[in-house]
Design brief:
Elements (H helix, E strand, L loop, with lengths): L12 H9 L3 H12 L3 H14 L5 H5 L1 E7 L5 H14 L4 E7 L12 H4 L1 H4 L4 E7 L4 H17 L4 E5 L5 H7 L4 E7 L11 H6 L2 E5 L6 H19 L17 E3 L8 H46 L1 H15 L5 H13 L2
Parallel strand pairs: 1-4, 1-5, 2-3, 2-4, 5-6, 6-7
Pfam families: MeaB
Protein name: LAO/AO transport system ATPase
InterPro entries: AAA+_ATPase, GTPase_ArgK, P-loop_NTPase
């Protein structure tokens, strides 16, 4: 079986970094494929690549804007991202879009359909869209997405938009690698809060009710009022909280339409206001904390990979599985035995 298509061609990672920094889209795609790979030799090359690409003073990182975007299924995330990306590229900014797609936990396959849902932005020379499979693990999201953000910044992109697949645990992971987390909501005839978890409201820095167009404008405004009320219940009267621009930041709840473009400018202004509220020291502190959190995400991901590749673990699992299936051995005892095999005890 020919697997060459799934592997980036051999190339000196330092030279690849030079090409990425020079603006080569082909090199950027190859670099992202490299950092997404789970092969040991690719991981080592990816570390060299990222080190070579990163400026010593971190100037590219601080200059860029990182925005996470999430919302319930059907909220119109891709339409919104295309509208926002078009506005930003129209202002002369270069925009990178990372779409974290669901991956099959059995095969690792991913639908990866965001390029087809953003036809205008896909054809824009100042935009770069990269579907990114999560590989079925939050560690996979953290490792691949965080490092791809660094690659986009090294390639000179001013704004990085990270679109997530829905509302769930991965949203907390993505919120931990961006400056501002935008939650898109949808007016649904009184049940617009359905599907929005309390935890997601707690991490949102800006909220926008999408699809506020045509005869749904009034309904969208009513939904915005309901969400503002929910925020006061969840986060206190100031609607501030950990991870925001501080206790003085009041989370704005806006309305917009990704279809018509109405309100998109106001949403972006709110994102910039949140970033401004952080201030340079606050932004630097936030990025520093995220880098350290990423360290542990990478450690957990690497341990998971080593656990799966371990021969003693595979042998122990083969012996333990029949006992667990027959309910003659408790799951915690089997887990302890697998860990002992991994530790060599």
């Amino acid at each position: 079986m020919n697997t060459a298509k799934s592997r980036p061609p051999a190339l000196d990672p330092t030279e690849l970094a030079r090409q990425v920094a020079a603006g080569s889209r082909t090199a950027l795609s190859r670099a992202i494929t490299l950092v997404e790979s789970t092969r040991d030799d690719h991981r080592e090359a990816a570390r060299t690549l990222l080190t070579a690409l990163r400026p010593p003073d971190g100037s590219a990182e601080i200059r860029s804007v990182r925005l996470g975007i999430s919302g319930v299924p059907g909220v119109g995330k891709s339409t919104f991202v295309e509208a926002l990306g078009s506005v930003l590229t129209g202002r002369g900014l270069r925009v990178g879009v990372l779409a974290v797609d669901p991956s099959s936990i059995r095969t690792g396959g991913s639908v990866l359909g965001d390029k087809t849902r953003m036809p205008l932005l896909s054809a824009n020379p100042n935009a770069y869209i990269r579907p990114s499979p999560s590989a079925g693990t939050l560690g996979g999201v953290a490792r691949a997405t965080a490092q791809t953000i660094t690659l986009l910044e090294g390639a000179g992109y001013d704004v990085v938009l990270v679109e997530t697949v829905g509302v769930g645990q991965s949203e907390t992971t993505v919120a931990g690698m961006v400056d501002t987390f935008l939650l898109l909501a949808l007016a649904r005839s009184g049940d617009q809060l359905q599907g929005i978890k309390k935890g997601v409201l707690e991490i949102a820095d800006v909220i926008a009710v999408n699809k506020a167009d045509g005869d749904r404008v009034v309904e969208a405004k009513a939904a915005a009022r309901d969400l503002a009320g929910a925020l006061r219940l969840v986060r206190g009267r100031s609607a501030g909280g950990a991870g925001t621009a501080g206790p003085g930041w009041s989370v704005p709840v806006l309305t917009c339409s990704g279809l018509t473009g109405d309100g998109i400018d106001q949403v972006w202004d709110a994102v910039l206001a949140h970033r401004s509220g952080l201030g340079p020291p606050g932004l630097a502190d936030k990025r520093s904390g995220q880098r350290w959190d990423l360290v542990w995400s990478l450690v957990r991901d690497e341990l998971d990979q080593r656990l799966r590749r371990s021969g003693p673990v595979a042998d122990a699992a083969a012996q333990l599985r029949p006992q667990v299936l027959a309910d003659t051995l408790p799951a915690p005892s089997a887990a302890d035995a697998i860990l002992r095999a991994f530790d060599g005890r």
